[in-house]
Design goal:
single chain; mainly alpha; Arc Repressor Mutant, subunit A; 2 domains
Length: 117
């Protein structure tokens, strides 16, 4: 998905950073998507690991990605993403309780109980 032009006047880390940011903004990389490791992406692009690490650091500082230690680097959940994810979770809950035959009022009681726990 990413391409680095070695002849460009734009530094390679900036090319990587801006392309990832554009993919996130365009929805091609959704919230929660795990990015390749620094070493793997560097190998794939023919770059030094420090170059990719710098791009990831800048993306993290901008709130575009979040690093979770040994678990990796993920596309960050932003406010609008959080609302969308919550809406999807709510829709999944409604589908499931209807499959189970739970009445709407009882489903709301269950949700209130879960929220207060």
């Amino acid at each position: 998905m990413l391409v680095v032009d070695p002849a460009s006047h734009v530094p390679p880390y900036e090319q990587v950073r801006s392309q990832i940011e554009a993919l996130v903004a365009g929805g091609a990389l959704p919230a929660g998507h795990r990015l390749p490791t620094v070493r793997r992406l560097a190998d794939d692009l023919g770059l030094a690991a420090n170059t990719v690490a710098r791009a990831y650091r800048e993306l993290e500082q901008a709130g575009v990605v979040a690093t979770r230690g040994r678990h990796g680097t993920f596309v960050a959940v932003r406010g609008s993403d959080r609302e969308r994810e919550a809406r999807l979770a709510a829709q999944a809950y409604v589908r499931r309780v209807r499959e189970l035959g739970v009445e709407d009022e009882q489903a709301l009681v269950l949700i209130r109980g879960a929220l207060s726990a």
